[in-house]
Amino acid sequence: MEYDQVCFFTALIMVMVSIVYSLLRKTNDWIYVSPLGGLQKTLPPGDLGFPLIGNMFSFFRAFKFGNPDSFISSFTTRYGQAPMYRTLLFGKPSIIVTTAEACRKVLTDERFGPGWPRSVSDLVGKRGLHGVSNQEHKRLRQLIAAPVAGQEALSLFIGYIEDIARTTFDTWASKDEPIQLLTEMRKTAFKVMMNIIMGNEINDEKSLDHMEHEYTVLSNGLKSMAVNLPGFAYHRALKARKSLVKTFAAIVCKRRMLSKSNNVESRTKKDLLTLMMEIQDDAGNKLNDEQIVDLVIIFLLAGHESSGHAVTWAIILLHEHPQTLQKAKEEQEDIVKRRAFSDTGLNFREIRQMKYLQKVIDETLRVVNLSFALFREAKSDVDINGYTIPKGWRVLPWIRNVHFDPQNYKSPKDFNPSRWEDPAIKIGTLVPFGAGSRLCPGADLAKLEISVFLHYFLLNYRLERINPGSRVQYLPITRPADKCLARIKKLTKSYA
To answer: Which of 117, 215, 382, 485 is deepest in the core (most CB within 10 A)?
Structure first.
């Protein structure tokens, strides 16, 4: 009799758990899907997960435990192959877009505006490029195009970058003990961007290290849940942003005062900050201080984050593929050999001759996927590929899936720069900097910086990793777990 009662209550508990589980799984549909009425029938397949958290546990499990592609494959397994799926991520109902064609449509359609999580807009600033409307984004891009991506500006930046690259690599090579290449490369890339943006405004190592640390804290908070409580990454990141805003606002204020006084120093400065303070649109409107500070924050964040990681990964991948390394090295040697005797360093013309190195950079960005997705929001109901994306829902072009789609690339997870010589590769299948009107305006500067660093490394140095089998971590950004602990060795035959 007691055994029968135990079985009965066990069965009852299991039924109740099953009912509660089913109700919880339907809660988000009641909240977000039911109000859509007839549009429900044309929503992409998928599910919105549990109340409040949605599918965040599945997302974190996939990315934290070393198998990020399992997150999308779980949708494919349950709902079949589709160009998009519905879910709830980062606190909002979302449509994940998985194919190159559908991603291109989203990224080039003006019916989609910015859709970054609250943590991003709070941390990088509401007046910069991430959170503004498409119209304001276009205006800002036009204003900063020449200072950031114009050939004259890029040619000027080359000298800044190569001076720092030469000095830094020599310093690393002189050390007997190993360094964390990723950590040091991030610091160096930050120093480069500070030089480009602010000249020698802040040039002592202690201040630069402190600010770079603040940026690391800020970056870690970007992909965290927006919990503003002590101990959480988002809380620490907000404090870091406050510190950075205070520093940059003071510098902008100082520059304004020098400009009004017609100071000689203000007339001779030609860094990016000065150019941003001077530029104006067709109506004569200039950027205000808040816009300038937010732009400085995002330029420094993207400039040292993406470039530092990309250079590190390119060096790692090249040394893992000796034949590719040799081919890239020979191209750089040929460039130096063809150089006029009077030329003492790189110039823009030589950068454009680095055809194979650009393939190495593109392949590194494709394989590593420094950003797993981009963030947009539907400003109206939009029909794409037979599915409806409802107004107000977040849209996530999942660029990691595009870069690893075997329909776009043969053996997509292999590092093979020569694949870019294949004319069959479709335009729009490589989108590390986005696409459309919101394409990252600093893309050319980032690739220039990466090119200069790789040029000098390939000519003069080699990498000796301490833990070549170190596992890869994917949050908040793809990186070796040991941060590429290695020795940098100077080659016997090296070039200036």
So the answer is: 215
Q: To which residue do tokens 């590593």 refer?
A: 368
Note whether 424 and 280 are within 8 A (CB).
no
> Would you say 450 and 310 are in contact if contact means Cβ atoms under 8 Å apart?
yes
Q: Give the β-pairing of 179-180 and 485-490.
A: antiparallel
The alpha helices in 228-346, defined as continuous H runs, are 233-260, 264-268, 272-278, 289-320, 322-337
Residues 459-491: b if buried by 16+ CB within 10 A, e if exposed:
bbbbbebeeeebeebbbbbbbbebbbbbbbeee
Left if phi > 0, otherwise alpha if psi is -120 to 50, otherwise beta: which for 90?
left
pLDDT above 70: residue 269? no
Mean pLDDT (whole number) for 434-463: 91
To the nearest 10°, the Cα dihedral for 397, 401, 403, 408?
-100
Distance CA 228, CA 253 (A): 30
The DSSP string of 114-163 is E---HHHHHHH-SSSTTTS-HHHHHHHHHHHHHHHH-HHHHHHHHHHHHH
Specify the pLDDT at position 267. Answer: 47
**In terms of Cα–Cα distance, which of 312, 272, 302 is closest to 168?**
312
3-state secondary structure 367-401: HHCCCCCCCEEECCCEEECCEEECCCCEEEECHHH
Angle in degrees, CA 141, 145, 150, rounded to 5:
165
Q: What is the pLDDT of residue 8?
A: 55
- φ, ψ of residue 374 in degrees (nearest 5): -110, 165
Query: The tokens of 153 are what?
Result: 């500006």
CA distance 250 to 47: 48
Task: Determine whether the annotation assigns residue 103 to a binding site.
Answer: no
Over residues 377-419, the pLDDT tens digits come to: 999 999 999 999 999 999 999 999 999 999 999 999 999 999 9
Name which residue leads in pLDDT, 400 or 427: 400
Would you say how long the chain is, in residues? 496
The angle subtended at Cα 482 by Cα 481 and Cα 487, nearest 5°, is 145
The answer to whether the CB of 192 falls within 8 A of the CB of 452 is no
Domains of the chain with CATH codes = 36-490 (1.10.630.10)
What does the pLDDT look like over 293-323, one tens digit per residue?
A: 998 888 888 777 889 999 999 999 999 999 9
Characterise 464 by phi-psi region: left (phi > 0), alpha (psi -120 to 50), beta (else).
Answer: beta
The encoded tokens of residue 430 equal 């490589």
For every residue of 285-305, DSSP letters joined together read -B--HHHHHHHHHHHHHHHHH
In terms of Cβ atoms closer than 10 Å to its own Cβ (0-12, 13-18, 19+), residue 195 is: buried
Identify which has the larger pLDDT, 379 or 208.
379
With contact defined as beta carbons under 8 Å apart, do 303 and 442 qualify? yes
